[in-house]
Q: What sequence folds into this?
């Protein structure tokens, strides 16, 4: 799964999008919840946009 997101001046995620789904609604929802809980230091310039890949391994 791939997620794109932007951290705003407060250090919180201000926007997020799944750019490649995991194919499972519950895993996609878990990834969204992870990003909603992020509290980072305020980025230089006020905003920081990036993307990440999350790999789930289910046994």
A:
């Amino acid at each position: 799964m791939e997620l794109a997101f932007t951290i705003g001046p407060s250090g919180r995620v201000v926007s997020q999008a799944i750019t490649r789904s995991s194919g499972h609604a519950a895993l996609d929802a878990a990834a969204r919840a992870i990003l909603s809980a992020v509290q980072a230091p305020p980025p230089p310039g006020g905003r920081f946009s990036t993307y990440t890949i999350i790999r789930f391994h289910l046994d």
Remarks:
- The chain has one domain: 2-53.
